[in-house]
Amino acid sequence: MRLFQGLFGRKGVTSASNNHLSAIETPEKDEWELLPGYIPVESDDPTLVSLIATAIAAGDRPNSQFKVKKIWQRNPELLTVSLIATSIASIDKPDRQLVVKSVYRKKNEILGE
Predict the structure, then answer these.
(1) Does residue 12 lie in a domain region?
(2) 21, 29, 31, 113: which one has the fewest Cβ atoms less than 10 Å from its Cβ?
(3) Would you say which domain of life the source belongs to (predicted)?
(4) pTM
(5) pLDDT tens figures, 33-89
(6) Beta-carbon neighbour count of residue 49 at 10 Å?
């Protein structure tokens, strides 16, 4: 009996402490916003991009028709930040591969403006 209490009794204690920590971190998260990985293409590029995309998609079927509804591009701000962050992080071990899963920025601070 005591063995099971020792194994399973600790989970309740750690989850209570985790709830306390998550309550502390919540106000800090409200100050940050997630940068999207893709943003809509600006109005000057969609014709060329849609032409290239439909040509690639058609492949061997030249009689097929496509309708392009939305065109998205990689977020240049996200690419710049992830490139800088991975470059700094890989100084010690250049053979290591790094993956940036998400990038956040402060809501009141916008780069380039």
Answers:
(1) no
(2) 113
(3) Bacteria
(4) 0.56
(5) 999 999 988 777 678 888 888 888 888 787 888 888 888 889 999 999 999 999 999
(6) 14
